[in-house]
From TrEMBL:
Domain of life according to the entry: Eukaryota
Family annotation (NCBIfam families): small_GTP
Protein name: Ras-related protein Ral-A-like protein
Pfam families: Ras
GO cellular component, one term: membrane
Length: 123
């Protein structure tokens, strides 16, 4: 429940696993908005979100699909970051989407991002 509204969302967290490739298109097709989450400690996850976004745009056949870019694991020491916030912000700007920083471990900004997602794309 968010504010006075009951909301239901589906979350497909593939963590880049190819096992989910068969069902991914179905989720992409029915999705109303997408959180593209990458780990600040893994450049591979940052690189992978490009492919996910392209797949979503292809399946939706629409270049105006709403996205939110999320930099996760923000609780890690700066020396463990492999993706700079400048690079992430540059990508967010090129996609014309907002960028948020979160930590699933400490719950930093997690509820806020889901709240923003729901208010922006669902309600």
């Amino acid at each position: 429940q968010l504010d006075d509204d009951e909301v239901h969302i589906d979350i497909l967290d593939t963590a880049g696993q190819e096992d989910y490739a068969a069902i991914r298109d179905n989720y992409f097709r029915s999705g109303e908005g997408f959180l593209c989450v990458f780990s600040v400690s893994e450049m591979e996850s940052f690189d992978a979100i490009h492919e996910f976004r392209e797949q979503i745009l292809r399946v939706k056949n629409d270049d105006k699909v709403p996205f939110i870019l999320v930099a996760n694991k923000f609780d890690l020491d700066q020396n463990q970051h492999r993706v700079s916030m400048d690079k992430a912000q540059e990508l967010a700007n090129s996609w014309n989407v907002p960028l948020y920083q979160t930590s699933a471990k400490t719950n930093f900004n997690v509820q806020q991002v889901f709240g923003i997602y729901i208010h922006s794309f669902i309600i």
